[in-house]
Specification:
Blueprint: H1 2-19, H2 36-64, E1 71-74, E2 81-84, H3 86-92, H4 95-117
Antiparallel strand pairs: 1-2
Helix pairs in contact: 1-2, 2-4
């Protein structure tokens, strides 16, 4: 991903230099007609990089959840408890919630398990 981003960034700098703009400027710029294809290639590369990065992060989070893990959360109206298995978590729980709540619980559980195994109470 990092290499793709660098390639896209270098292409973009070339386009800006060709247009006579400062690559670090945050002002709008004009892409000359003959460089429009390069500009859209750059946009495609950047979008691909973001999609790849998000997919990699999502895969990491999903693969970090043990197969037998159950996530329980009280429903918004507080009338019942929602229970999710690993597959349901992957499909129905946001990546942000998985990172902030589920992975923290899993990590804390692993630390406690290691402490119990080493004899520390």
């Amino acid at each position: 991903m990092h290499a793709t981003y660098n390639i896209a960034l270098n292409k973009f700098k070339e386009i800006l230099e060709f247009c006579g703009e400062n690559p670090r400027a945050s002002v709008p710029f004009i892409v000359k007609r003959e460089r429009i294809s390069d500009f859209f290639d750059y946009l495609e590369d950047i979008m691909s990089s973001y999609v790849f990065a998000f997919s990699a992060l999502e895969h990491f989070v999903n693969s970090s959840i043990p197969n037998e893990y159950i996530y329980k959360i009280e429903r918004g109206d507080k009338k019942c408890l929602e229970v999710y298995n690993k597959e349901q978590i992957e499909r129905n729980i946001s990546l942000e919630t998985m990172k902030q709540k589920i992975l923290r619980k899993i990590k804390f559980g692993l630390i406690l398990r290691k402490l119990r195994i080493s004899g520390i109470k």
